[in-house]
Amino acid sequence: SVKSEAARYAECVATLGQRVTIGKSGIHGWGAFAKRRHAEHDMVIEYVGELVRPSVSDLREARCYDDMVGAGTYVFRLNKALCVDATRAGNLAHMLNHSCDPNCFSRTIRVVDHVIIFAKKDIEVAEELTYDYRFCGEEQLPCNCGAANCRGRVNEKPPEGQVLARRSELKPYRPPRKPPQLATQQPQ
């Protein structure tokens, strides 16, 4: 039987720990990795954070987050009235690194009005989860994704009429004393 979007969302939230983990990334610092296979269009993870108005997000970025250059902010525009800011509070979704050839994409689902990261293509166990940040802004943020089609920078001009959050890049992750091992890695 075909599951409703609401049922798929509930399953996505309930099984997060069984499906996604963190580990050392070849792209940038730490990243999120698949603990199990994800088929194309699977809901992989909800992007969780504080709901704020765009004006609050812009003010935070101007006053606080700009001092964190290289440390990063995590703001998704949910709609014209709200943003999801995962800079101070969030889940593993903020660990997804950028790739110019990503295996995931984001979409707002109307059932719960939340940002969900979906599998853009089939994702295998231990594969790093990535999406194209597509930030707009004047600051040119270098890209280290290594994809054959790499643009050389994370940000770009937004397509005409599309609303994107202003700027973001990765903040430092404070790993636990012993980094978690992926299921396919042998303990050292």
Could you characterize the architecture of this molecule?
- It is a single chain.
- Helices cover 13% and strands 21% of the residues.
- With 188 residues, the chain is an alpha+beta fold.
- The chain has a domain at 5-131: Beta Complex (Beta-clip-like).
- The strands form 4 sheets. A 3-stranded antiparallel β-sheet has the order 3-9-8, covered by helices on one side. It has a 3-stranded antiparallel β-sheet with strand order 4-6-5. Strands 1-2 form a two-stranded antiparallel sheet.
- Strand 8 (104-109) and strand 9 (114-119) form a beta hairpin.
- The protein is globular and about 45 Å long.
- The protein starts with a helix and ends in a 57-residue tail after the last strand.
Brief synopsis:
It is found in: Nucleus. The protein is of the alpha+beta class and 188 residues long.
Features:
three-stranded antiparallel sheet, Beta-clip-like, alpha+beta, histone H3K4 trimethyltransferase activity, 21% strand, 188 residues, disordered C terminus
Listing every helix as H and every strand as E from the N terminus to the C terminus, the arrangement reads: HHEEEEHEEEEEE
Across the major sheet, the strand order is: 3-9-8
The Cα radius of gyration reads: 16 Å
CATH class assignment of the domain at 5-131: Mainly Beta
Number of helices, counting only DSSP H or I runs of 4 residues or more? 3
Strand content: 15-25%
The amount of helix comes to 10-25%
Mean residue pLDDT: 79
- Terminus-to-terminus distance: 43 Å
What is the CATH topology classification name of the domain at 5-131? Beta-clip-like
Low-confidence stretches: 161-180, 183-188
Protein name: [histone H3]-lysine(4) N-trimethyltransferase
Enzyme class: transferase
EC number: 2.1.1.354
Pfam family, one: SET
